[in-house]
Amino acid sequence: MNKLKVLFVVALSFFLFAAGYRLLAVGPANAQAPGNPVVGVTTYGGDTWLAVASNGDVYRSDNTGATIWTLRGNVFGAPTSVKPETWGGMKRRFR
């Protein structure tokens, strides 16, 4: 009977270890690229820096880029509105 208890405890410990690992294990670590990386940095006037992000946002820092970056605008401006047009409508417009 003693061997049966030992077998039960060993089997239960393996089961609990496997269940805990399955529930608590974290998946593999995957690196994520930033959503809006900086593509250019320049300086003008000494301590003032400008950084341009990939979507065209321009950020400015007045303390050599140490702490405060403020959004100053976008290089590309507003998006261009596009109205879908049929081939017949285009021919009619340019006749």
Overview in brief:
This protein has about 100 residues and is α+β, with helices and mostly antiparallel strands. Helices cover about 30% and strands about 25% of the residues. The model has no long low-confidence stretch (mean pLDDT about 80).
Rounded radius of gyration (Å): 31 Å
Helix content: 25-40%
Low-confidence stretches: none
| Tertiary shape | elongated
Mean pLDDT, all residues: 82
Main sheet strand line-up? 1-2-3-4
The proportion of strand residues reads 15-25%
Largest sheet entry: 4 strands, antiparallel
Instruction: Say how many strands there are.
Output: 4
Note the gap between the termini: 100 Å
**Order of helix and strand elements from N to C terminus:** HEEEEH
How many H/I helices?
A: 2
**What structural class is derived from the secondary structure elements?**
alpha+beta
Would you give an account of this structure?
This protein is α+β, with helices and mostly antiparallel strands. It has a domain at 38-74. The chain contains 2 helices and 4 strands. It has a 4-stranded antiparallel β-sheet with strand order 1-2-3-4, with no helix packed on it. The longest helix is centred in the first third of the chain and has 23 residues, at 2-24. The chain is elongated and about 100 Å long. The termini are far apart. The model has no long low-confidence stretch (mean pLDDT 82).
What's the arrangement of secondary structure elements?
Layout: H1 2-24, E1 38-44, E2 48-53, E3 57-61, E4 70-74, H2 87-93
Antiparallel strand pairs: 1-2, 2-3, 3-4
